[in-house]
Amino acid sequence: MQKILIADDNEEMLDTLVRIFGLYDFEVIKALDGKEAITAAEQNIPDIIILDGMMPIMDGFEACQILKQKKATKEIPVVFLTANFMELRDRIKGLELGADDYLLKPFNSKELVARIKSIIKRTETTKKLREDNQQLINKNSLIEDEFKKLLESKKNVEQNPVTDSSTGLYKFDLFKDQVENELQRSLRFSNDLSLILISFDNLIKIKDSLGSQLYNYFVIKIANFILNQTRTIDIVSFNEKTGFYILLPQTDFDGANAKAANIKETLKANKYIDEEILKTLEFSKKKLSDISKLSFKFGVSSNSKDDSIAKADDLLQIAEKALGELPEN
Predict the structure, then answer these.
(1) Are residues 119 and 243 in the same domain?
(2) In sequence order, what E strands does 47-166 have?
(3) 158 in the same domain as 41
(4) Of 81, 100, 153, 175, which sits most exposed with the smallest number of CB within 10 A?
(5) Is the pLDDT of residue 43 over 50?
(6) 131 within some domain
(7) Rounded distance between C-alpha atoms, residue 129 and residue 135, angstroms
(8) Taking the model in full, what pTM does it have?
(9) Residue 90: what pLDDT?
(10) CB-CB neighbours of 184 under 10 Å
């Protein structure tokens, strides 16, 4: 039985929603304000949370922000159910705080339940992709051990896990440390080392337009395509400001360019929104098409081409400057 938490200070509306979701075999947890909602979410870990925007003691916006900051509740999808006269700036504010969707009052009961079920399905799909990425990364236990050693040297293993919880990829600050380690190793043993940077234009638009959950889905989906095109010795990371990075040990410049071209073709050939995800989105086909057209640029750097590379930042900066040398898709 799926579990839903509903917070609304209007008890008549709350009772109506309890009856509706009860008829569809949801276990319903009630809260009358944002503070109660946070406590109930931590105690019950629901599959989804519905918040009214305006409530006493603590409103839905503040509650959403806190829920998205807490480790136990940050992955739970949050939906605002609000009056249709809510200001656009308030809807944008909710998305910026991490809300996954907005639904409007008045509502059709069947449509409301169908939408909530679709959002839960979207969350499950994203979670499965993240787990797939984690499994692909875990194939290389040697790299995993090296990252853990880096963390131990910083004395914050429990507070700062190896991988980013949103994407399943290695955290970028640890990735940079590993780039430095690999570069020094390559210089010491005269091995080739290359790096690919994959940048894109529209992903931030997706985050602004559709919310953080779908943004995370896009990042995880693209990461999954990339991971399936890399070797176990390659290391993949993501930086929201610049894009995806792939570190390629024992690979020269030509090999890195060939790998970039293969990944480019894979990204061109695949869809980023599955049919199950499309069902959860109430947007025109044109808008969805515009959003899903991600424009990728590739930059490659290698110590086999530039023997002046002496530190990790050199490798990263040269790849960034080289963006666009492969044709855009």
Answers:
(1) no
(2) 48-51, 78-83, 101-105
(3) no
(4) 153
(5) yes
(6) no
(7) 10
(8) 0.62
(9) 63
(10) 14
